[in-house]
Design goal:
- By secondary structure, the chain is mostly helical.
- Helices cover 74% and strands 0% of the residues.
- The chain contains nine helices and no strands.
- Helix 4 runs antiparallel to helix 5 and helix 7 packs antiparallel against helix 8.
- The radius of gyration is 19 Å and the shape is globular.
Amino acid sequence: MAVLTRRGLWPVAATHLLACIIFFIVLSNEHSKGKPMCCNWESPGLHPILMVFAFVWLGPWASMSYTSLEWIFGMSHSQTKSIHLFLQTLAIAVGWIGFASKYEGSSAHFRSVHSLIGMLVLVGYSVQWVIGTLVFIPEGVDPSYKRLVHGWHGPAGLTLMVISFATVLTGSLSYAGKTSDPSYSRDNFNSYTAVSFLLIPLGILMVFLVTTRPKGVKEPDGQERAKLLNSTGSKTGWP
């Protein structure tokens, strides 16, 4: 049963809007530098575009898919799970492409907090994807094992998402701080300063959406959980 209310809808809409705004600010800013700086493989501008697309747009949308699609709009659990998996897969793929572009385009590797935390997030997302795919997608997995993994899979994903925002924030501050670099203009500074500020409400909204159930959606009890963990058609948010 869908719980489509104004109270539940506005944070979902605001989160989607903020993610889009941040991505298009970065895309517009990097594209304004011209193709050699922006969109060529190994160019410095391609990395932030891909990473913001992966971990500010796709990743958060995947994380709140159960809240927005299943609990609020009433989509079936199996459909929501498929969309969640697709978005996470796409986010991880784009993230690794962004990493490869930066790695091949620079001779300095893992020399900053941004790069070290970013690598941790990328590996963490990949591990989460592997575990989630092996445990929650196949039929016949022991429900008690699913229940055990689910207990930390969600919190771990939320933690990685918050850390990914922090990684993008450190990268944005790094770009905004290059005022002495002649290739960076005042517009570049303003763009990445805006991204830094917009990441804060986006993070707050994401934590709110992922950890709060809409009014009318109750936590399933032990017997219901066992049933839902054996079913692909439930609508309660349990994998």
